[in-house]
């Protein structure tokens, strides 16, 4: 079974993006991402730091707005609105989950769609559904890049997407069904009957459910390509940290059945951040009146 390394593919993409950032800088365009972090959730702090580090690596400016856990919705919205107005900021994202008193949807809908580099705003999801995407949803587009750069043809293939979240499963299923990709897509979820049988019809199986090692060999057609989006932390006393990350797919169990699969960690995860950088660069380009930088 071929290992589809998102770590390697994202490195190559980041090199392309780094060149584009320096190209933009010679034209007086300095891409900048603002990240809002509310509260002190340790996992969120790790994500925000790695976004900041990747910005630095690529020469993208970054601005972190740290807000206390007691922040009110009104305070949060006023920070979003100030960033919307700041012409030096091209992209804005608000790290989730938010504390209980804050309304995530209202925050997403307050971000200027022109600066919505996460592609969570209904306006950008609408463009995508209409077949004219502006920003690309980060994890789904990262998956499409893994497939493209591993010479895995999508057109005409039977794709099963297991999971229908607004950030992964649904936008991915819509993108893949567009004329640009031409897949025949089935979306599965917790009410799907005969789940293993349906998954086993897939030439390309994408799993985004958040259930550790749920997908076993019986879900996989011989020769299929399997993309594992899941990131689940499980207890492991043998590990120095006492726990480790595993995917939604039993990677060892599908060896000899799948033709190729993404590992966890080192698969989809690193692609998501690279695509966030890609969207930030495009935000700077769009706001300067330029067209899309293609990957
Ligand atoms: N690597 C990355 O960059 C990245 C990015 C995003 C997410 N993730 C990871 O991907 C996983 C999924 O996250 P998400 O936000 O997309 O999903 P989510 O919002 O947690 O939704 C999970 C989806 O899986 C379905 N599901 C759950 N249990 C199921 C079962 N037993 N049988 C069939 N379907 C089931 C749910 O069905 P219903 O709709 O019926 O409830 C839902 O559609 C998580 O582990 C998350 O941490 C990773």
Which residues form runs of ≥5 with pLDDT under 50? none
Bound molecules: NADP nicotinamide-adenine-dinucleotide phosphate
Radius of gyration: 19 Å
The main β sheet shows up as: 6 strands, parallel
Specify the overall morphology. Answer: globular
CATH class call of the largest domain: Alpha Beta
Q: Could you give the order of strands across the largest sheet?
A: 1-11-8-7-5-6
Average pLDDT level: 97
Number of helices: 9
User: What do we call the CATH topology of the largest domain?
Assistant: Rossmann fold
Overall tally of domains: 2
Would you kindly provide a written description of the structure presented here, covering whatever features stand out?
The chain has 295 residues and is an alpha/beta fold. It folds into two domains: 87 residues, Rossmann fold; 132 residues, Rossmann fold (3-Layer(aba) Sandwich), CATH 3.40.50.720. It is built from nine helices and eleven strands. The protein has a six-stranded parallel beta sheet. Strands 3-2-4 form a three-stranded parallel beta sheet, sandwiched between helices. The longest helix is centred in the first third of the chain and has 21 residues. The chain is globular and about 50 Å long. The model has no long low-confidence stretch (mean pLDDT 97). The site of NADP nicotinamide-adenine-dinucleotide phosphate has 23 residues, from helix 9.
């Amino acid at each position: 079974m071929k290992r589809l390394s998102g770590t390697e593919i994202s490195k190559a993409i980041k090199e392309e993006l780094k060149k584009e950032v320096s190209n933009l800088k010679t034209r007086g365009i300095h891409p900048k991402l603002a990240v809002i972090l509310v509260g002190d959730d340790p996992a969120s702090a790790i994500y925000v730091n790695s976004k900041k580090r990747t910005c630095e690596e690529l020469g993208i400016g970054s601005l972190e707005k740290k807000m206390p856990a007691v922040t009110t919705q009104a305070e949060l919205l006023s920070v979003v609105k100030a960033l919307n107005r700041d012409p030096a900021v091209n992209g804005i994202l608000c790290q989730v989950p938010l504390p209980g008193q804050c309304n995530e949807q209202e925050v997403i809908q307050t971000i200027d769609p022109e600066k919505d580099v996460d592609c969570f705003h209904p306006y950008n999801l609408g463009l995508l559904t209409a077949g004219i995407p502006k920003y690309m949803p980060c994890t789904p587009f990262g998956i499409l890049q893994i497939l493209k750069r591993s010479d895995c043809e999508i057109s005409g293939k039977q794709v099963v997407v297991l999971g229908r979240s607004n950030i992964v499963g649904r936008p991915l299923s819509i993108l893949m069904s567009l004329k640009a990709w031409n897949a025949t897509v089935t979306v599965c979820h917790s009410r799907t009957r005969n789940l293993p049988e349906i998954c086993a019809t897939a030439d390309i199986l994408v799993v985004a459910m958040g259930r550790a090692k749920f997908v076993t060999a019986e879900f996989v057609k011989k020769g299929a390509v399997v993309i594992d989006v899941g990131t689940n932390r499980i207890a492991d006393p043998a590990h120095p940290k006492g726990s480790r990350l595993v995917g939604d797919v039993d990677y060892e169990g599908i060896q000899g059945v799948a033709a190729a699969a993404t590992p966890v960690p080192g698969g989809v995860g690193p692609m998501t951040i690279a695509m966030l950088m890609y969207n930030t660069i495009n935000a700077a380009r769009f706001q300067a009146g330029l067209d899309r930088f293609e990957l």
